[in-house]
Amino acid sequence: MSAPRSPTRLRPLWLALGFALCGLGFVGLWLPGFPGTVWFVLAAAAFSRGDPRWEAWLLARPVVGPMLADYRAGRGMPLRAKGVAALSIAVAVSLSLGRIPVLFGQVAWVLLGLAGIWYVTRRVPTRRGPP
Fold this sequence. Notes:
Number of helices: 6
Largest sheet: 2 strands, parallel
Low-confidence stretches: none
Radius of gyration: 17 Å
Strand content: under 5%
Number of domains: 2
Shape: globular
């Protein structure tokens, strides 16, 4: 399910964005608390607009490909992954909250974190059983 191809002049920008997002995704595979899947989903979308060969390459990666296939098929996330995602959001918000000097910004940041936790836990389907 590829996105429509972009005009030729935009393809290099989509490719550059895809590589940058892919890099963040690979960092997320190794850094605890830094999600990788979301970056790979965005990278696949960018590659699909820039060059389908790079999208196919990303989908063929042994670890990343199944995650992207699950996302695209609407299978959702395993319960454990949802818990890790919600906990990561809570930790990131709490650790960075003190760096926001304005009360309005702090409230907005907490609300954004709560919205993220709500979305992951309530709106993203929970995958049961083996992938």
